[in-house]
Design goal:
heterodimer, A: alpha+beta, Sulfite Oxidase, Chain A, domain 2, eight-stranded mixed sheet, five-stranded mixed sheet, disordered N terminus, B: mainly alpha, Four Helix Bundle (Hemerythrin (Met), subunit A), 9 helices, disordered C terminus, binds protoporphyrin IX containing FE
Chain lengths: ~325, ~210
């Protein structure tokens, strides 16, 4: 079994052994055409590289220009050293310093809830049927800074649909690994660990929502949420949960970590919105990381500039109330 | 060397050096000296460093009186004004960093922040108090104000309180650091209350060794 199963999962939630051993059959049922990864391959036994991943071949991918920004990407150096990943410390450089020996292989993800198919799957099996694509997205943090990042991933909806969510699946809940031994930030109760995030099912199925495994043409560095993270480019960065071990389809709206910690400051939706200020600072403008001390602040755009694609998801909703 | 000289030639220059060190380090990193840098978000780094240094110096200023008693070194008082002025200096740099680097001279937004965002209101009041103290810190002002000078300079307590409160309120999740500052401030103020009470008690019991007289 997975050595690093989150300690908080109650026994009733743990996938029965049989289901686990049956995962290849399930994957076949999921329509996985290329379950080429047979058993623990030689590479997964190899010592981890400094990125935490075994020295496996670099990712193969195609560029998706339709969904990509044409703005100049933020330097790799900044993307991988200026991180909010509280599991590895609270200051921006902490994750890079503290996540180097984080083990991301083997990695498995438990998928369940209101869906016809469920189980715990090795990451490589989960990814096998999907082609990876590069998309250059804007990233807007709730702290009023922003970046432009070339992510590598697959449309979240493509993966979710394989599990045949039922009509009761109104939301999708994501959970980060809980492992205080490896994640020093979890030893302090800064947030109620493990980190939980969620999306409405139609948000999750939107073609812009991306499950990410790489950045800048390489597998994700640990500090960026390896080996599997979410990127929802029209929402504040904290929605884009890192190091995912569990995905559940739910009928009720998930209790997300930040909205539990400070409900008046962080809502469930957290769509980028220059008109709705954080109680303690304005969201009207943003500092683009890496553009220098005196670079002009740019205006923050509704839905982080993706309004044409996603605004229709929220038609009729009061976005001041549902912030 | 006489005490007077020791302070003029050694201790005060040391305070100058120590107090200017954080600024020198910021400048050094800003200009990339010795491979340093201000990181991916230099405006934030400058803002935070100045805020933190202002508060550090403010607490250090408040620590002078207890230290004088504990170390039985009444001359330490000669350093207090300098420390207080440097605290004000960094508070002004902190405010400037916010107005210039973060808001880029957007004065209406600064005004709005001061009015609408309680933690900034607190910081602003603290800066005003420190400005009043700095403006009346000269020997001349001291002589002119007489007894009122003491009362006015009591304002360092609310200024420190507002500074710590402001620090606490801007935190996103981890309150451990501001809690530490609050604990230090409480200890410094608590010591004063305790000292006053002791002084009052010993003077009513008829003792001639009034602790206040050092
Ligand atoms: C008008 C006056 C002031 C303004 C506009 C102001 C503004 C700010 C802002 C925007 C932050 C948040 C930085 C962030 O989000 O990272 C901050 C943090 C802080 N401020 Fe102020 N401030 C003022 C006065 C003061 C004063 C008087 C003090 C101390 C005596 C102070 C000490 C601090 C400290 C310690 C922090 C936290 C730094 C950190 O996170 O390491 N501020 N201030």
């Amino acid at each position: 079994m997975n050595r690093r199963a989150p300690a908080t999962i109650s026994p009733s939630e743990i996938t029965p052994e049989a289901v686990f051993h049956d995962r290849r059959r399930i994957l076949a049922a999921l329509g996985a055409t290329a379950i080429a990864v047979a058993g623990p391959s030689a590479s997964s036994q190899a010592p981890a590289a400094s990125t935490g991943r075994p020295p496996r071949s670099p990712p193969r991918y195609t560029r998706n220009t339709r969904w990509s920004s044409t703005e100049p990407p933020t330097a790799y150096e900044h993307v991988t050293s200026y991180n909010n990943f509280y599991e590895f410390g609270l200051d921006k450089p902490d994750p890079k310093a503290n996540a180097q020996r984080f083990r991301t292989d083997p990695w498995s993800v438990e998928i369940g809830g209101e869906a016809e198919l469920s189980g715990r799957f090795a990451l490589e099996d989960l990814l096998a049927p999907h082609a990876l694509e590069e998309r250059i997205y804007r990233l807007r943090c709730v702290e009023a800074w922003s970046m432009v990042v070339p992510w590598l991933g697959l449309p979240l909806g493509d993966l979710l649909r394989r599990f045949k969510p039922t009509s009761k699946a109104k939301y999708v809940e994501f959970t980060t690994l809980l492992d205080p031994k490896q994640m020093p930030g979890q030893r302090a109760r800064v947030l109620d660990w493990p980190y939980v995030e969620g999306l409405r099912i139609d948000e999750a199925m939107h073609p812009l929502a991306l499950l990410v495994v790489g950045v800048y043409g390489q597998w994700l560095p640990n500090q960026n949420g390896a080996p599997l993270r979410l990127i929802v480019p029209w929402k504040y960065g904290f929605k884009s949960i890192k190091s995912i071990v569990r995905i559940r389809f739910t009928e009720k709206q998930p209790q997300t970590s930040w909205s539990r910690s400070a409900p008046d400051e962080y809502g469930f939706y957290a769509n980028v919105n220059p008109a709705v200020h954080h109680p303690r600072w304005s969201q009207a403008k943003e500092r683009r990381i890496g553009t220098g001390l005196l670079a002009t602040r740019s205006d923050t755009l509704p839905f982080n500039g993706y309004a044409a694609e996603v605004a229709s998801l929220y038609r009729g909703m009061d976005l001041r109330r549902h912030f | 060397m006489r005490v007077e000289q020791r302070y003029r030639l050694i201790y005060k220059p040391l305070v100058w050096l120590g107090a200017l060190l954080p600024l020198a380090l910021l400048l050094g990193r800003g200009f990339g000296l010795a491979g340093g840098s201000l990181g991916a978000d230099p405006a934030e780094e400058i803002l935070r460093t100045c805020g933190k240094t202002a508060l550090n110096l403010l607490l250090l200023t408040l620590a002078v009186t207890p230290l004088r008693r504990l170390l039985q070194a009444p001359q330490l008082l000669r350093l207090r004004r300098l420390l207080g002025l440097f605290a004000f200096f960094y508070a002004v740099l902190h405010l400037l960093a916010y107005a210039v680097l973060e808001l880029q001279f957007d004065w209406p937004v600064l005004g709005e922040d001061i009015v609408k965002r309680p933690y900034i209101t607190l910081g602003f009041v603290a800066v005003l108090l420190l400005a009043a103290l700095a403006a009346t810190s000269t020997q001349r002002a001291m002589r002119r104000l007489g007894r009122r000078w003491q009362r006015l300079h009591w304002a360092i307590y609310p200024a420190a309180l507002l500074g710590v409160w402001h620090f606490w309120w801007q935190v996103k999740a981890d309150i451990r650091q501001p809690a530490l500052y609050a604990a230090i401030l409480t200890a410094l103020l608590g010591w004063r209350l305790w000292w006053k009470r002791r002084a009052a008690l010993t003077s009513t019991s008829g003792s001639s060794t009034t602790p206040g007289r050092t």
